[in-house]
Amino acid sequence: MIKVGIPRALLYYQYYPAWKAFFESLGAEVYVSPPTTQNILVSGSSRVVADTCLPAKVFIGHVLSLIGKCDYIFIPVIRSLKSKTYNCSKFLGLPDMTRAVVPESPPILEIEIDINRGKRKLYQEIYKLGRHFTGNPLKVKRAAMAAWQAHLNYQEMMSRQGLTPPQAIERISGITDTRPEFHSSPTTPPRATIGLIGHAYLLYDEHINYQLVKRLEQTDNRVLTPEMIATPQLEATIARLVGKAYWTYEEEVVGAGGYYLQDKADGIIGVMAFGCGPDSLMMDIVHRQGNRQKTTPFMCLTLEEHTSEAGMITRLEAFLDMIYRKKRRQVEVCV
Ligand code: SF4
Known about the structure:
Elements: E1 3-6, H1 12-25, E2 29-32, H2 38-45, H3 54-66, E3 72-74, E4 77-80, H4 89-92, H5 94-101, E5 108-109, E6 112-114, H6 119-130, H7 137-161, H8 165-173, E7 193-197, H9 200-203, H10 212-218, E8 222-224, H11 231-242, H12 254-261, E9 267-273, H13 277-293, E10 298-303, H14 309-334
Parallel strand pairs: 1-2, 1-3, 3-5, 4-6, 7-8, 7-9, 9-10
The structure holds iron/sulfur cluster.
Iron/sulfur cluster (SF4) is lined by residues 53, 55-56, 88, 90, 199, 273, 276, 278-279.
């Protein structure tokens, strides 16, 4: 059986159930790299220039960890998912970058998704990918439909049941990211509701964000994430704040940030990678909107290879203390 390796990085958190359904429908076995470790991060960093963003370094580390464990590595190029919205350049060149810096990588399976080039081109790309496994176009079509259904189920599971991507993936396929030292046990009612905004590969990679979600939950806060908001609401928020999205994953930052600013959370934490151009623009829009409204505190955490855990915890504690004080004052005024 052909084994397809999937790096647990970048778009894994958005599309893993769909990819798994597609390859398994075609009779392949899917193998996911382990959760990020310091070794994975260091090995990835050693292959690329220093100013490459942290998520791309992590991605290369995951590719390295898959060598010898699979026949192919799947690296899609997601260029555009909606008319005239575009992805960051790192995603566009991911297979080429991987070949250049990891020449010993297993052969790369790629597919280019660009909605602006029309449905015909999209179908051609899907059949081109499927041809590695079967010569029967009907089987490829069935696999594509299974992938689409798996993706819809995954999104609905997260928005309806309030699950994060790792929690939903664990329910779907049993793959877990959970480390033993933290246990989520939010009290009822929670001390505060915190809206986390940012790309999934920053919010859910526990190694690079020092278990941010679990830290917040462990201190009895309720955590809201972008996936818990339905797509129409995210799109409506973007339309209200910026008119039309320009970046492919703008919903995760501007959409979710603007939505949680509408009195849906006691505080918002934006998580971004150092040196990320798209995020610095998008995070600024949310920050400015927060400043205009003056109701919901906002903090931006910037992650990079050398981000210190102690520094991050200190900022987090100060932010949470400020929110708890604000909530106590509100209760006192009401009494
Ligand atoms: S959007 Fe930013 S963090 Fe994500 S891959 Fe591009 S440069 Fe890196």
